[in-house]
Amino acid sequence: MRVNRVEIDGRIASHQGLRHTPAGMPSFQLQFLHASMQYEAGRERKVECEIEALAFGEVAANLARQSPESNLTLIGFLERKGMRSSIPILHVTEFKIIKE
């Protein structure tokens, strides 16, 4: 098995609300904002990005209850956005609330 694991901190920028698949499974699609300082080639650099993420099932229902101001760690894997797209989307399999 090859490694495909992503763990990223940030907050929810926007979302489409809790929805359900045709089979009735909860789904939650969101835009996630990340900002941090990272080291690259011996230097510190400011990193900011917005990524698209998607969760299903119980994780989706619980993630939908979080306020946009909440600091979260999303954990999951990358998959292409659709059958005809090579753009990646983060599939969230778990999340943690960051208490600061």
Question: What this model shows, in words?
Answer:
It contains one helix and five strands; from the N terminus they run βββαββ. By secondary structure, it is mainly beta. The protein has a five-stranded mixed beta barrel. The N and C termini lie far apart (36 Å).
Please summarize what this structure is.
By secondary structure, the chain is mainly β. The chain has one helix and five strands. It has one domain: OB fold (Dihydrolipoamide Acetyltransferase, E2P) (Beta Barrel), CATH 2.40.50.
Unreliable segments (pLDDT under 50, ≥5 consecutive)? none
Secondary-structure element order, as H and E? EEEHEE
CATH topology: OB fold (Dihydrolipoamide Acetyltransferase, E2P)
CATH homologous superfamily placement = Nucleic acid-binding proteins
Number of domains: 1
Query: Overall mean pLDDT score?
Result: 94
Topology:
Blueprint: E1 6-20, E2 26-40, E3 43-56, H1 57-64, E4 72-80, E5 88-97
Parallel strand pairs: 3-5
Antiparallel strand pairs: 1-2, 1-4, 2-3, 4-5
Question: Characteristics of this structure?
Answer:
single chain, 100 residues, mainly beta, OB fold (Dihydrolipoamide Acetyltransferase, E2P), five-stranded mixed barrel, 5 strands
